[in-house]
Amino acid sequence: MKIPKRTEAEQLERIRTSIYPKAADACTDLAREISDLIRARVQEGKPAVLGLATGSTPVPLYRELIRLHREEGLSFANVHTFNLDEYFGLPREHAQSYHRFMQQQFFAHIDIPADHIHIPDGMVERSAAYGHCQEYEEQIRESGGIDLQILGIGRTGHIGFNEPGSSKDSRTRLVTLDSLTRHDAARDFLGEVNVPRYAVTMGVGTILEARRVRLLAWGDAKASIVARAVEGVPVESVPASFLQDHADAQFVIDGAAAAELTRIKRPWKVGEVKWSESVTHKAVLWLAETVKKPILKLTDEEYSEHGMAGLLTSQGPAYDLNIRIFNQLQHTITGWPGGKPDADDSFRPERARPFPKQVLVLSPEPQDDVLYMGGTLSRLVKQGHRVTVAYVASGNLAVPDSEVLRSVELMLEMAGELAADGGGADAQFAGSVREQLAAKKTFDNDTPDVRRLKRLVRRSESRSACRICGLPGDNIRFLDLPFYENGHYRQFSPRANDRERIAALLKEVRPDQIFITGNLAEPSSVQGICFDLFRQAFESLAGEAWTRECRVWLYRGSGSEWDVNEIEMAVPLSPDELANKIQGIYQHQSQRSQHPIRTSGHRESWQQAEAINRTTAESYNRLGLAEYEAIEAFRRWSLK
Ligand code: GLP
C-alpha cells in the first residue's frame, strides 16, 4: 500500500492513518497489500505468515480476500495464520467460538491447508493454559514470525483481548475480559451473563513483533477510541496506543471512525482551513463550549486567543459572526417536524407544503424508531401527517429464550382455558416450540419455529410502542428482510431481493419525508446494512419525480446523538412528551435487561435515550438558546 507522507493536518497523529470513504474501499487496498505479500513470499520460496483477527471489522476484508482467491487465482497454500485470541472455556463448535468464526468467514472458502491454521485453544485445562500460551509463542517464532498482523479495536481500546492495563511487553496469556467488552459481546451470546469471563490472547508484545500491523476500524462507535489511540500518549489504559511505537503500523479506517481525529473534528487547529459554512459553524460552537459561554457573548479576543483570527478577518467581527451562527442554530429548532402548514417556511428545517405529508419512518430493528425519534413520531402523527413505520429487519435474534417460553406458556394456558382438550393448532405449535426450547443446547442456534415466535414477540412489542406514539395499527409494516431472517450477527449477506423490498415500499408510499438511521454505523451491523440497502433502493428510483422532492432525515442511533453543530432539525419535547416516549420504549420488554441486578454503570435503553435527549436540550441551552426539557435531533441526507 502506498502511504503518502504525513501532511500538516496529520501532525498530531502518532500512527499513520488512512481514511477511506467506505470500509469496502479500504479492504480493496488492504487485500491487495496482502496478496502482494503472499505472492512475494512465493517468489522467495518462503511462507507468508498472517496474524488474523475476529469480530465484525475484518469480515469485509475476508470477503475481499475470498473474492481474490475465487476470481483472481490468489492461492493461500503458502500462507500460515495465527489468530489473536479465543474465548476461554468455549468449545470449538460453539456458535461464538473464534475457531468456528474463522472457518465460516474465511478458511472454508480458501485453499489454506488445515495444518497451517493456528488459533489459541480455549478448551485447554486451566492448569495447562500457561504452557499452551508458551507453545503458541514458540509456533509463531518457528514460522519465522508474523509478516502482517490484522487487528480490530474494541471500544476499551483493546487489541486482541489485551484489555486496558495490559503492559506493552505482555505475551500470549489467559486474561480476564473487561465489563465493557463483555457488554459489547452480550448480543452475540444473548445476554451479558452468558459471555465468557476469560480469554486466551496474544500479548501486546507479541503483536508488536509482527513486521507490519494494520488496524481496521469502521463506524462511529469506534471514533473516540481511534482518536485516543492515534493522538494520545501511549498508555496502558489504551492498549492500541502502544502501536505508536511500531515502525510499520497503520490504522485503516472509514470516515465515520475518523470523526474524532483533530484533522476532521477541529481542522483549524492543525493548519489553515477554508472557512466554509460548516467549518465556521463547527468552530463557533466549539469556541462557545470551550470558553463555556453562550454564542452571543463570545468576544473578538476569545476568537483570536483560540487560533481563529483568520475567521474574524474573513467573517468578523465577533458580533456579526455570533449573531449569524446563533440565528442558524435557532432556525434548526422546530415543533413541526413535518413542516408547519400555512407558515412562512423560509427559515424552517422542513417545508410547509405539501400538507399533510406522506412520512416514512424506517426502523432497521424494532425499537430504533421509538428510542431515537419516539417524540418526533408522536408529533408527526398528532400534526395530521400520514405516517408509516416500517421495521426493516424482524429483530428475532435479539430475543432471549425466556421471552418465547413466556409467550408459549401464555398460549398454552389460554388454550387450556378455552378448550378442555388442550386446544387446536395454536396449542400444538406452542407445545412444539416449548419442546424445541427444552431440547436446545447452550450452543445451538434457534430452530425456525423459535425464530418465528421471536419475530412475533418483537412485532407485538412494536405495535404496542407505536400505539403509545399514537400510530394506527394499519400504518405499521414489518418487512422481515430475508438477509436477517436467513443470517446471524456478523454473517449477514444482503442480496438484491432485500433491496427490492425496500424499493417496493418506497414506490408504494411515495414519501414526502423519510426518517432513517445507520449511515455512520459499522457496515455489517443491521443498521449499516439497512441504510445501505435503502441508499441503493432510493438511488434506483432516482428517475421518479417524487424522489427529488422527498427529504431524507437521519436520526443518529447507536446510543448517541448528533453533535450540535451537525444538527439541522431539533425537535423539542415537553416533559409529557418525553415521559410518553419512555413509555413507548418500555413496551420493548424483550430488550430490557434480563438480569435486573447489574454490575456498575449499566443503563437500560430508555435511560440512555432519556439522557441523550436531555443532554441535547442542555447543550442548546448552554449556547444561549431556550431551555427545553429534551430534544430529538436530525440531519439531512441526500444522494450525492
Ligand atoms: C473482540 C476481539 C477483538 C476485536 C474486537 C472488536 O473483542 N477479540 O479482536 O477487535 O472484538 O470487535 P468488532 O470488530 O466486532 O467491533
Hetero ligands: 2-amino-2-deoxy-6-O-phosphono-alpha-D-glucopyranose
User: What oligomeric arrangement do these chains adopt?
Assistant: single chain
Corresponding CATH architecture of the largest domain? 3-Layer(aba) Sandwich
Do you know the CATH topology of the largest domain? Rossmann fold
Could you please describe the fold and organization of this structure?
The chain is of the alpha/beta class and about 650 residues long. The chain has 3 domains: about 250 residues, Rossmann fold (3-Layer(aba) Sandwich); about 45 residues, no CATH class; about 210 residues, LmbE-like (Rossmann fold), CATH 3.40.50. It has 22 helices and 17 strands. The chain has a 7-stranded parallel β-sheet, sandwiched between helices. A 7-stranded mixed β-sheet has the order 13-12-11-14-15-17-16. Bound molecules: 2-amino-2-deoxy-6-O-phosphono-alpha-D-glucopyranose. The site of 2-amino-2-deoxy-6-O-phosphono-alpha-D-glucopyranose (GLP) has 13 residues, from loops.
